[in-house]
Amino acid sequence: MRRTALLASAALLAGLLPWATAQAADDPAPAPVDRFEGEVPFAAQPAEGIFTWGGDTDDPPTLRLADRADAPEGGKVLAGSYDISGYGGFTHDFAATAPAHDWSAHRGIRFWWDGRNNGRKIPFEIKDGGANGEASELWTTSFTDDFTGWKRIELPFTDFTYRTDYQPVGGIDHVLGLKEMWGYALTLPAGTKGDFALDDVELYGTPDQALTASVTTDAPVHPVKEGATAKVEVTMATTGAQPLTAPVTVTYATADGTATSGQDYTPVSGTLTFPAGTASGATRTIAVPTRRDRAAEPAETIPLKLDVTGAKAPAETPQIVVDANGLPYLDKRLPIRKRVADLLGRMSLAEKAGQMTQAERGAMTRPGDIAAYDLGSLLSGGGSTPTPNTPGAWAKMIDAFQLRTQATRFQIPLIYGVDAVHGHNNLSGATVMPHNIGIGATRDPRLAERTGAVTAAEVRATGVPWDFAPCLCVSRDERWGRAYESFGEDPALVDSMETVIQGLQGRANGKDLDRADKVLATAKHFLGDGGTAYGSSTTGTYTLDQGVTKVTRQQLEDIHLAPFREAVDRGIGTVMPSYSSLDIVGDGKGAVKMHARGDMINGVLKDRLGFDGFVISDWNAIDQLPGDYAAHVRTSVNAGLDMMMVPYGYKDFTATLVDEVKAGRISEARVDDAVSRILTKKFQLGLFEHPYADTRGAAAIGSAAHRAVARQAAAESQVLLKNTGGLLPLKKRQKVYVAGSNADDIGNQTGGWTLTWQGASGDTVPGTTILQGLRRAGGDVTYSKDASAPAGGYDVGVVVVGETPYAEGVGDVGNGHSLSLSAADQAAVDKVCAAMKCVVLTVSGRPQLLGDRLGEIDALVASWLPGTEGDGVADVLYGRRPFTGQLPVTWPKSQAQLPINVGDTAYDPQFPYGWGLTTLTHVPRGGTAALRDLGARAAAAERHGDDRTGRALVTRARLLVQRHTDGHITAAVAKPFADADHLLLTGRYGKAVQKLTDAYRAA
Question: Which top class of enzyme applies to this chain (predicted)?
Answer without folding.
Answer: hydrolase
